[in-house]
Write a structure and sequence with these properties.
Elements lengths: L1 H37 L1 H11 L3 E3 L6 E2 L5 E13 L8 H18 L5 H13 L10 E2 L6 H8 L8 H4 L1 E10 L7 H4 L2 E4 L4 E4 L2 H5 L1 H5 L3 E7 L4 E7 L7 E2 L4 H18 L3 E8 L4 E11 L4 E4 L14 H11 L9 E3 L3 E3 L5 E3 L6 E3 H6 L2
Helix pairs in contact: 3-4
Length: about 375
């Protein structure tokens, strides 16, 4: 009798458990059907929003001198940050390393003293979950890759990202190794709100922007084993490197000589262009302008390529070419000059002090 009661009791519990399992299975199946069929469009739209395509910026091409010396290139700098809300951080471990960490940060990032770094880290950690507490804060700015690697080995940082909250952000920056040399000709880059990217704003950077920029890539957020990362399904294509005819040595000489002439003549601005006669290649070009606030000359507008008439200075140069090529041989010949001349149907080139006719030999004297 006792055995039968035990069996009935066990069977009752077994049936109850099985009913519960079947109920849960039916509920899961119903929710699965609802998610994948009834509300499929809603969930797919949400997944697409979370898994949106992100643009991967390409590496901008270099601008090179005639010997392939780099005049402008994109270099990655790094902003290291400390996330003190990281779950792997242990308070006793942080406090044990805090003094040594602050001393090290004062060396790599000297815009704060060791005392200030120690107080900021301690205060941020204690208030990390309050309104005035920050999720993370920078512990450096525009560091090179070698300095970033040094920072990884600092006390507390060496424990790894999960235990220290240390991570970094890349900061691409356009650099000119020769500083202000040929700065106006090389140009600058800045954010373009129309193109919604960094683009050339002046000089060669602007004129050859499409070639230098390259082609952007595409990436999607992807769930990996332990984190969400970006999967680059369309790699970015690096921009073309541009080889110019500028010679670094000659460019330096031209800039120094132009600066000396401008200072000796107290000129408002000056322009110098050095051309290799046999090829027509521009080996150096400099544009200097006087800035009262600097009390010195610095790169100004590129007058050498601006759209205005060059003036009488071109007369002897043009005549020299005509004599060398044999187009003109008789210096006593008379040519009709007038006050203007329409070159190939373009707007007339005017001479404010022109006359009806000149001897060939008088062309040079009239400048």
């Amino acid at each position: 009798m006792t055995k039968r009661k035990n069996r009935d009791y066990i069977m009752g519990r077994y049936i109850l458990i099985m009913v519960g399992i079947f109920a849960v299975a039916i509920a899961v199946a119903a929710r699965l059907f609802s998610t994948t069929v009834v509300y499929a469009d809603r969930w797919e739209a949400k997944a697409e929003k979370l898994n949106r395509i992100r643009v991967v910026e390409p590496e901008r091409g270099k601008i090179l001198a005639d010997d392939r010396t780099v005049l402008a290139a994109s270099v990655n700098f790094y902003m290291p940050r400390l996330d003190l809300r990281s779950e792997g951080i242990k308070e006793d471990t942080l406090m044990r390393y805090l003094g040594a960490l602050a001393d090290s940060l004062a060396v790599i990032s000297p815009y704060k003293t060791a005392k200030e770094w120690k107080e900021q880290i301690a205060d941020t950690y204690q208030n990390r979950y309050t309104k005035r507490g920050a999720r993370s804060f920078p512990i450096g700015n525009k560091l090179t890759y070698s300095l970033l690697q040094s920072m990884r080995n600092l006390p507390f940082m060496c424990l790894g990202t999960s235990k220290s909250g240390f991570y970094y952000e890349e900061q691409p920056r356009r650099c000119n190794p020769y500083g202000r040399m040929a700065a106006r000709s090389i140009g600058k880059v800045a954010y373009d709100p129309v193109k919604q990217r960094m683009a050339g704003r002046s000089g060669l950077e602007r004129a050859l922007d499409d070639m230098l920029y390259g082609e952007p890539g595409e990436a999607r957020s992807t769930q990996y084993a332990n984190a969400i990362g970006l999967w680059e399904h369309k790699p970015a294509k690096k921009g073309y490197d541009v080889l110019t005819t500028i010679n670094v040595g000659l460019q330096e000489i031209v800039e120094q000589e132009l600066s000396a002439v401008c200072k000796s003549s107290c000129a408002d601005w000056g322009t110098a262009v050095l051309m290799e006669v046999s090829t027509g290649e521009i080996k150096a070009i400099s544009n200097l302008k006087y800035y009262p606030n600097l009390d010195d000359y610095a790169e100004g507008e590129n007058h050498a390529v601006m759209g205005y008439e060059p003036g009488s200075v071109m007369k002897p140069i043009s005549m020299m070419v005509a004599l060398e090529d044999g187009i003109v041989s008789n210096l006593d010949a008379v040519i009709a000059t007038g006050h203007s001349y329409a070159f190939r149907g373009a707007r007339p080139i005017t001479d404010s002090h022109g006359i009806a006719a000149l001897l060939i030999s008088e062309v040079v004297d009239s400048c």
